[in-house]
Amino acid sequence: MDHNKPNLKQRRKYLRNHLTPAEATLWKFLKSKQVNNLKFRRQHSVDHYILDFYCPELKLAIELDGDFHFYNQESDIKRDQYLRNLGITILRFENRMVFEHLDVIIREIKEVNNRTL
């Protein structure tokens, strides 16, 4: 599994500097090991895919979906299957969940962490 390929560096940097409002809000809660002392990375690439958030310790990807994803579900299914084949767990949430039910997102992250202990 190839992480953070150099050819994607500029794209990852651009995405980190231009987070969506939902990504920026979730990042406030994930950064600095605030959830179960877990380290998360923003806009982390695995092979040719760039993940919104990634926790290497748990091999956990968190993806936030806006309107674009509703039209691109087939691509998301292929991507998720590819990542699962690499042993990565994917939690996928609609952007609105960050604003309306952040507690659910945090709880699901903690549940993944508890399953890996």
Key features of this structure:
117 residues; alpha+beta; four-stranded mixed sheet; 6 helices; 49% helix; 21% strand; globular
Structural class given helices, strands, pairing?
alpha+beta
Distance between the termini: 23 Å
Helix content: 40-55%
- Provide the gyration radius in Å: 14 Å
Largest beta-sheet details = 4 strands, mixed
Strand content: 15-25%
What's the arrangement of strands in the largest beta sheet? 1-2-3-4
| DSSP E strands, number | 4
Low-confidence stretches: none
Count every helix, treating DSSP H or I runs of 4 or more residues as helices: 6
- Topology as a string of helices (H) and strands (E): HHEEEHHEHH
- Overall 3D shape: globular
Whole-number average pLDDT? 91
Detailed description of the structure:
It contains 6 helices and 4 strands, in the order H-H-E-E-E-H-H-E-H-H. It has helices spanning 9-17, 21-30, 67-70, 73-85, 95-100, 102-116; strands spanning 41-46, 49-55, 60-65, 89-94. The chain has a 4-stranded mixed sheet, with helices on both faces. Strand 1 and strand 2 form a beta hairpin. The protein is globular. The two termini are 23 Å apart.
Provide a brief overview of the structure:
The protein is of the alpha+beta class and 117 residues long. The chain is built from six helices and four strands. It has a four-stranded mixed β-sheet, sandwiched between helices.
